[in-house]
Records
---
Amino acid sequence: MDEDLRNIVLGVLATGLSASLGWLTRTYVWRRRLRRKQAFFGLPGHAECLLVVNREAGGDGAVHRFDVFALLELAALVKDCGAQAQIVQHDRTHLGFGDRTEFCVGGPGSNRRMAAHLGSLLPGLTMVTDPDPVEERGAIEVGGERYLMDPGAVEYVVLARITAGEGGRPVFLFCGQRAITNQAATRYLARHHERLARTHRGSFVLLLKVVNSQAYGPDVVELVADVTRAALRAPAAVPATT
């Protein structure tokens, strides 16, 4: 009887020890992944960040529903990092960058903050904001290439993470040709942030293609090119003619 009791006690102890080791291992892995995620997004626990929202073109200050969905996905990422988000309209954000993480959504035509970021942070990348000609509206130009959209079939969006400013906190840009492409970029970031953190140690600028959004929404996204070097480099000045 004593032998049976001893075996039972040893079995209980072994089970408890195994469960404790498993719990400690899972906790360690979870905390390590969380620290990596916080470092990538520049969001340590209880940090504050900005969600800069654009306006719908012709919407009298309204925000497009796909941009709202993009903000919701970003807010979930912020919450997972244990940080807090402040939503600010694009024309009321009179702050520098680097002191806290910023997520800026929308093209330069509907987001003044994005237009400023493109000019100062990505001088080698431009987006056509003129309404005419229609076929060139929203065209993205970078690295000597021009990317035109076919609405609902083939559209492009720039996803960028830029570290600049004294604080060193990143600025994330979601600059798409249509609102649905902005959501596609935020979803791409949410799904692939671990791989992006391993691949890119600092700033990066990616050109993404959204395929057949009229059928698949923001879910089917392809990486077209890493245009970091071309986007960060100011275009060569054109010599004046005499």
---
Amino acid sequence: MAMNTSAATTARTMWALYEPIHAVAYFAPEARAAYEDAGLRGFWRGYFAGRAAPLGPVGPEPVVASFFTFAPAMVARALPDVWSLAAPERALELRRAGAAAALTRLLAGHEREVERAVEALVPRAAGLDGSGRVLAAANGALDFPGKPIERLWHAATLLREHRGDGHVAALVAAGLDGCEALVLRSAVDVPRAELQPHRGWTDQEWDAAAQRLTDRGLLAPDGAATEAGRELLRTAEAATDQAAERPWRPLPPEQVAALVHLLTPLTTACATALRFPNPIGLPKPTG
């Protein structure tokens, strides 16, 4: 089947716009304080509790599988113990409240734009097909909140987990495991210091993954990505974009342009809560 290049390009453009809106739930001080005030001390307890909560009180194995790039030992340090501090239902409340508080501050003065963004994004996010997409399906089973700022965050979250699930599938199809995906990415554009410590891999595990990539001809002996390695990543990214097309297919070019214009100031404001470079691989907004 021929790839719909226009829809795939739109999918990548939109990811860069809604990802910062979603990511405030991890990096903004209000979001971190919500978890810590509830007893989830340390960044990673809140992160794993909030992001995994839609899955229910799971152990580390489903989270290792669905989050993909985190070292199993790192996940196991948080799960399932966090559920004794905050059950999934409570963790969902904390992430909603933290994200809402952060967005309320970051998007002050943009209330009308938030309402218009909700009108545009909710139809794209509601009823997304969850086939083969565990995190998207789990979040899609949750009700949309009532307040516009919360609806905006929920819509952004559904879209990014939908895309993220497709990205994991693309990396698996490329024959990469979680650590290998990070090692190869670090040889192309995201520094190792932004990936390895934030995903919990030891130097031994990292070096072993690098050796496997070298044996496949994806890394040169000096650790630089070969052209084959770069092409593998390009192919995986293209497959990710294609898998994320569906919400954007109905939009004609003029509606895409209008949505980009609408979201750009919101994205720029939210990006002030993030750092660049970052382990997400998110580019700094240019608008």
---
Amino acid sequence: MLAQIVLFDGFDLLDVLAPFEVLHAGGMASGGALRAELVSAEGPREVVSGVGGVPLRATAALEPARADLVVVPGAAGRVGEPGEVPGHDADAAPDAGEWREDEFIPVLLGRTLNTDLPGLLKAAMDRPETTVATVCGGSLVLAMAGLLEGRYATTHHMGLDKLDATGVNAVRARVVDDGDLVTGAGVTSGLDLGLYLLERELGPRIAHAVEELFAYERRGTPWRHHGRPPVAL
């Protein structure tokens, strides 16, 4: 099983590293049944994060026809909208590999729409064998590309209104399982997302072994549109 974790300019480090380490450990615990790699829409390259300009290297290209699991992170930057800072030019994209400390998260997410990433993600979502997962603002990348209308998903609590405005059924939960789409909420939920994916794909014994290795217990009940709806409490 191949898990491809996507890097794009301005990505959030923890959104990437948390699920990557969990999935990588799951691969070791399962004797190689799962392999995780860092990829980009452009292929192998150094990709600068939005956290202090720290780079990670994508070792391969995102290939929906090859991946069983595609994980999309959110971005790291300033919270708010560009208009809140006088003189900030949201359209002034930095040069490749350049990190700008004043970038806003919506701007960084929006710039992904001008790359090959939306088309590749659509191909992944159109492929029945592929599960697409997101952490934090990664679901907003898919939503802004028009790929989540009518689906159930979550994101960072500060972005739930934006997610809902794109036609998504936004759910306030740590992890939301909508079949071939699994989404995680705020940044640290990448750990919970990764462990849930291990349990779902490789079984609870593998997920439990990784929990023990990381000295971390998964938080929250994964939400699914299934079963009896709750009444008001």
